[in-house]
Amino acid sequence: MSKLNLNQSLIDKARSSARNIAEEVQRFVDEHTTVAVERTILRLYGVDGTDEIGTPLPNIIIDNLKKAGGLSAGIAYFMANAVLNTHLNPQEIGEKIAAGELDITKLPLKPEAEIKAKAEEMARSSVERVKKNRARRDEYLSTLGEGPRPYLYVIVATGNIYEDIIQAQAAARQGADIIAVIRTTGQSLLDYVPYGATTEGFGGTYATQENFRIMRKALDEVGEEVGRYIRLCNYCSGLCMPEIAAMGALERLDVMLNDALYGILFRDINMQRTFVDQFFSRTINGFAGVIINTGEDNYLTTADAVEEAHTVLASQFMNEQLALKAGLPEEQMGLGHAFEMDPNIENGFLMELAQAQMAREIFPKAPLKYMPPTKFMTGNIFKGHLQDALFNMISIWTHQGLQLLGMMTEAIHTPFMSDRALSIENARYIFNNMRNIGDEVEFKEGGMIQTRAAETLQKAADMLAQIEEEGLFATIEQGKFGGVKRSRTGGKGLDGVVMKDEKYINPFIPLMLNIELTRSKSPASEESGCQSAGKSSMDSTNIQRESKLPLNEVSFNK
């Protein structure tokens, strides 16, 4: 029952608009692939390593395929055909390509049915590995157990994976449930994934598969010591979004920051590129049992949290529907929001409480990710500690899922181990003493909290109706999220987008979604003369709506 007395018909209307927006984006996604998607397929096929100058093999192979004009058919098509012709495995074929000894686009083509069968057969081993990782997590959770929600979520960011281990294990012993290894500054803009264990980074540590493996092992060890499962978090946003999702699935990460809108607005990544990348990354995360974190909290670092709160809710509605398209269940949607109002506002706490309770009631199954105050942290550590305490109170009151703990030294330096210990102590004290306050306290009928929530919901529903009419890409161009404008043909990575042709194969999507993909022409593909790959979502029905997305507004590589 709603404590906020929210209008359910308005919630339904907002969700319907978000669903239509997601369907339109999905049509565009289904018709395109990217260099990152194709590199991800290679990684899932077991291709890894670098050449003699450190260039990752997946990059070398996909760059060669793109230059040869074969990207539109997808690497799975050519790699499966190469395996049939050479009887080598994908790693061996990749090494020959890197050495200049093989051009897989010039091999004789086997019958299409044989190629598709081989592509699927090759995919099954990594799919089974991910299944085993998920089963291993479930085993740990059933034997060791875990901390209560909200999970205490802290960061390590030394730049050195081995130093990160020391800090991460210390945090687990202090009571942390989730360890996020912050990525080094700028990695989201790299169109490749670095290789191996790394010991140098600025503001964080490189996300590599070896670093994932090392930290996973360390957290399993400390989890067995403290008697509860410790979750590992990293970032599959940026230009390598699906690649890092695949690496995380292979190494049993548990939480991934994953949001196309965040990359578009705050990293200037091309919107067409990142929506295609996001779909495959979320398909992988959903299959691997990974909780995604979305980036709505970031809007309030560039826009006013009082005036623009509805944009956070609107984005949450859209992220919910886009995630469902990728087969990601609500229980794995860490939809983001933040405690970011100016502490000098009168009754700001009540408005923050309304926002958090509203998110909890509208998305009851989602393990909401609640972000701490950062924008108005001043360096006054005593006031900062109080701001974090108020944040912790709202989190336990409204039953949040993942609580990124605030640090009293925010705006001063990367936190020391002692800062982290004080933050965990603060949260544990408040969570214990106020555990059931949300079950005991009701809100005044027609009072400030209910009124604030109703106004925010109405604005979000109106905004979603407008986006439904204009299209998401146009809305982003207008700067309606976070006050940041981005062009649909600008930003980084557009040259890595290509339209699929009729031979295109990605065997991992049907295997991970457990569906049979169908090929059908949408109105958009009829108009542009391209062949649709069919809806790669839980609903495989073709949507008969005119596309507003820019299928013909850019020149894609053919």
Automatic annotation (TrEMBL):
Residues 520-558 are annotated as: Disordered. It comes from the Bacteria. Residues 4-510 form the D-Lysine 5,6-aminomutase alpha subunit domain. Residues 520-544 have a biased composition (Polar residues). InterPro entries: Cbl-dep_enz_cat, Lys-AminoMut_A, Lys-AminoMut_asu_sf. This is Lysine 5,6-aminomutase subunit alpha. It comes from Lutispora saccharofermentans.
